[in-house]
């Protein structure tokens, strides 16, 4: 059950705002250095601590943590004030990736074999649990940085985000297990709001605002902005799954093999004739190892026939436009800065990866 | 008179924006060469444009619908939680302080009781604490061990009772245990029979002194107090309190 990844930017570099890679590099480095201090050493090294540090050390764009730091800075905080929250975000994100890979039985993550492929399922599962626990420590250390009251508020935000993420994950896993078909766009977007948007966008934005502005900002608009940004990001990520590109680092048509209920799959099912729907349902009812390449090819061809990719792409662009609108509602009155341009640029950056 | 020929701009290849399928997909190599697609009538063009707009509008509208409902749900949950905590606060403001005080009092009583029992147990095990004080017990530990035989400071407690019994021994003088004698223990109510079964027993020279208390089964529940005296001078050196519980 893959969450949107911040993958590599490529394709049309001319459109990429130069500020985005710079900010990602700077705040990513700051967060990584802080993460190092939290990574335990000693024994059982080979069974736990090496595994815990594996995914964080593989890289990643650090988009979530950078968004948190940038938002805090836009509202007047220092980057150091938000670093504990940024670290917690990355640890939790990596913990969920470990569990995602197990749930999806994915074989590759960030260009290398997944943790459970390398170390076996029990140890990988345990390492994922430990990463989850590790994300609590920086949240507690927030008391020293932002004071106990705001540290508690951030902790409450983390609590909500974790529940939303678990609910979203459960929805998607449940749909696959029960072979749910004919899902609506509303179903999909609700699932994405919970599964992806809260951890990837809403939590970093809201906590950044708490750190920077304390009580002086309404946090509701950040949910809107984070949702539109996160949903367009996830749809684009799903679309990238149909493109063979080494930089993307994932299996071509992997979502079809897994039977993920993407916007495209839901669209093609709704658009299909009754006979085609029966065939789709039969294919999706099969366990992944029993699906045949010819069946995947047929589903992909059906998507082309009914314009499902174009449909999803348009939805993603519409949501990105709404994200820009919401951005201006929140940040419009604030003075221009590199961090502000970074946050604004994310709305279009999500499409730069094709 | 020569009549100059009027200059004319060349007719533009297109007179309106190219809005057709090929333009949308950006497949044109040259706008001039391709021009509008003649096979694509205005009605179809308008249909495609509307369809495109419809999808965008559908996506954005749906997005706002979902997120506004989500925010509303969040607010309702927050409001419920706030109301619940406010209810708890109101309730606790009225009786909470009293409850807290009672709880603290109960806690203190329990702690004191446990402390008393621990003290008695410690004192009976090491009566030097009673005669020399805690400080000297700690600082003179090697010496005490050396002279414990001569001073007879080792105690054991033997209680024979079918009823629950609490014992408290308080000695103020430093005396060899062999000189200690316990008088009969009396209850505050003179009508109750005294407790006679408390005594110090001597065994061999190196054996610890035994404080033996025998409570008859028909002994009334009460607090019995007796004086501990120096057998040589008959002067009181402490008290023994035995509480027989019902």
Layout of helices and strands, plus pairs?
The complex is a heterodimer of chains A (354) and B (246).
Chain A: H1 19-38, H2 45-57, H3 63-74, H4 83-104, E1 108-109, E2 112-113, H5 115-119, H6 121-134, H7 136-146, H8 148-177, H9 185-213, H10 220-240, H11 254-258, H12 263-271, H13 274-285, H14 293-306, H15 308-331, H16 338-349
Antiparallel strand pairs in A: 1-2
Helix pairs in contact in A: 1-3, 1-4, 2-6, 3-4, 3-9, 3-16, 4-6, 4-7, 4-9, 7-8, 8-9, 9-10, 10-15, 12-14, 12-15, 15-16
Chain B: H1 21-24, H2 31-34, H3 42-125, H4 128-139, H5 141-151, E1 155-160, E2 165-171, E3 180-182, E4 198-201, E5 209-214, E6 222-230, E7 236-244
Parallel strand pairs in B: 1-5
Antiparallel strand pairs in B: 2-7, 3-6, 4-5, 6-7
Task: Characterize the structure shown.
The complex is a heterodimer of chains A (354) and B (246). Chain A has helices spanning 19-38, 45-57, 63-74, 83-104, 115-119, 121-134, 136-146, 148-177, 185-213, 220-240, 254-258, 263-271, 274-285, 293-306, 308-331, 338-349; strands spanning 108-109, 112-113. Chain A is mainly alpha-helical and 354 residues long. The longest helix of chain A has 30 residues, at 148-177. Chain A is globular and about 60 Å long. Residues 1-14 of chain A have low confidence and may be disordered. Chain B is of the alpha+beta class and 246 residues long. Chain B has helices spanning 21-24, 31-34, 42-125, 128-139, 141-151; strands spanning 155-160, 165-171, 180-182, 198-201, 209-214, 222-230, 236-244.
């Amino acid at each position: 059950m893959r969450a949107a990844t911040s993958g590599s930017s490529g394709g049309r570099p001319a459109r990429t705002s130069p500020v985005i890679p710079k900010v990602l590099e700077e705040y990513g480095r700051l967060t990584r250095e802080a993460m190092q201090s939290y990574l335990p050493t000693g024994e059982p090294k080979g069974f736990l601590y090496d595994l815990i540090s594996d995914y964080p050390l593989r890289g990643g764009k650090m988009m979530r943590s950078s968004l948190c730091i940038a938002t805090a800075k836009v509202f007047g905080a220092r980057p150091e004030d938000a670093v504990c929250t940024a670290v917690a975000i990355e640890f939790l994100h990596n913990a969920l990736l470990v569990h995602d890979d197990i749930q999806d039985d994915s074989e590759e993550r960030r260009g290398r074999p997944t943790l459970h492929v390398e170390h076996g399922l029990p140890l990988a599962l345990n390492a994922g649990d430990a990463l989850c626990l590790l994300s609590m420590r920086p949240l507690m250390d927030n008391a020293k940085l932002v004071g106990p009251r705001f540290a508690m508020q951030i902790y409450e935000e983390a609590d909500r985000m974790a529940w939303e993420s678990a609910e979203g994950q459960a929805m998607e896993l449940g749909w696959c297990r029960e072979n749910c078909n004919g899902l609506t766009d509303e179903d999909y977007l609700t699932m994405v709001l919970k599964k992806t948007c809260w951890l990837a966008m809403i939590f970093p934005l809201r906590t950044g605002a708490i750190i920077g502005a304390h009580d002086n900002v309404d946090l509701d608009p950040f949910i809107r902005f984070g949702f539109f940004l996160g949903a367009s990001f996830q749809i684009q990520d799903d679309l990238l799954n149909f493109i063979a590109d080494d930089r993307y680092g994932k299996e071509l048509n992997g979502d079809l093999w897994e039977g993920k209920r993407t916007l495209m799959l839901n669209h093609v099912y709704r658009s299909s004739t009754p006979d085609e729907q029966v065939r789709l349902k039969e294919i999706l009812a099969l366990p992944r190892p029993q699906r045949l390449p010819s069946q995947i090819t047929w589903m992909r061809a059906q998507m082309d026939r009914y314009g499902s990719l174009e449909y999803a792409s348009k939805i993603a662009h519409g949501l990105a436009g709404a994200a820009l609108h919401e951005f201006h509602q929140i940040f419009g009155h604030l003075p221009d800065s590199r961090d502000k341009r970074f946050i604004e640029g994310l709305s279009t950056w999500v499409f730069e990866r094709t | 008179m020569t009549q100059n020929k009027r200059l004319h701009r060349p007719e533009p290849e297109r007179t309106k924006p190219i809005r057709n399928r090929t333009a949308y997909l950006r497949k044109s190599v040259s706008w001039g060469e391709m021009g509008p697609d003649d096979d694509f009538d205005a009605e179809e063009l308008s249909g495609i444009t509307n369809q495109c707009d419809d999808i965008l509008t559908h996506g954005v509208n749906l997005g706002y619908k979902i997120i506004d409902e989500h925010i509303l749900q969040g607010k309702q949950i927050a409001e419920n939680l706030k109301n619940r905590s406010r209810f708890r606060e109101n309730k606790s403001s009225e009786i909470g302080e009293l409850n807290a005080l009672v709880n603290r009092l109960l806690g203190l009583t329990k702690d004191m009781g446990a402390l008393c029992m621990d003290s008695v147990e410690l004192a009976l095990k090491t009566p030097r604490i009673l005669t020399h004080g805690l400080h000297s017990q700690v600082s003179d530990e090697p010496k005490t061990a050396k002279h414990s035989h001569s001073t007879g400071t080792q105690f054991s407690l033997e209680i024979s009772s079918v009823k629950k019994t609490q014992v408290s021994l308080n000695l103020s003088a430093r005396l060899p245990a062999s000189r200690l004698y316990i008088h009969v223990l009396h209850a505050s109510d003179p009508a109750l029979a005294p407790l006679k079964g408390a005594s110090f027993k001597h065994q061999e020279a190196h054996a610890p002194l035994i404080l033996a208390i025998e409570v008859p089964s028909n002994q009334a529940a009460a607090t019995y107090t007796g004086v501990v005296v120096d057998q040589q001078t008959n002067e009181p050196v402490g008290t023994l309190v035995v509480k027989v519980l019902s």
